[in-house]
């Protein structure tokens, strides 16, 4: 009986080590979260302002920024958001913001937003 208990304990420990190594491996494989919490929250607040202040809107808006984050690195998101903000304000000084390179950055963000909307709403 002692030998059985000893081998059972060894087997249990081996399984525990295997499970822990699997958990650590999966944690390492997760994509990097490079969107600051403030940026995610700002997106969700704006999204909820448009889609309603409900729990369902919160869930869908959070899903939306998560999908955008999967599709677009934060630095690209931030660049496009900055351009869109400046263009919305208007004026003579925004003419340079309409260059093909800058328009491409905004278009990339808009495509990510559309895909996120299709998946989350």
Description of the structure:
The chain is globular. It has helices at 2-29, 37-51, 55-71, 74-89, 100-120. The chain has 5 helices and no strands. α2 (37-51) crosses α3. The chain has a domain at 37-120. The mean pLDDT is 82. It is mainly α and 121 residues long.
Topology:
Elements: H1 2-29, H2 37-51, H3 55-71, H4 74-89, H5 100-120
Helix pairs in contact: 2-3, 3-5, 4-5
Number of H- or I-type helical stretches? 5
Largest sheet: none
User: What proportion of the residues form beta strands (DSSP E)?
Assistant: under 5%
Q: Compute the average pLDDT.
A: 82
Spans of at least 5 consecutive residues with low confidence: none
Topology order in helix (H) and strand (E) letters: HHHHH
The tally of strands reads 0
Alpha-beta content class: mainly alpha
Radius of gyration: 23 Å
Cα separation of the termini: 60 Å
The backbone outline, from C-alpha atoms, is globular
State the helicity in percent bands. over 70%
Can you describe this structure in just a few lines?
80% of the residues lie in helices and 0% in strands.
Summarize this structure as a short list of keywords or feature phrases:
mainly alpha; 121 residues
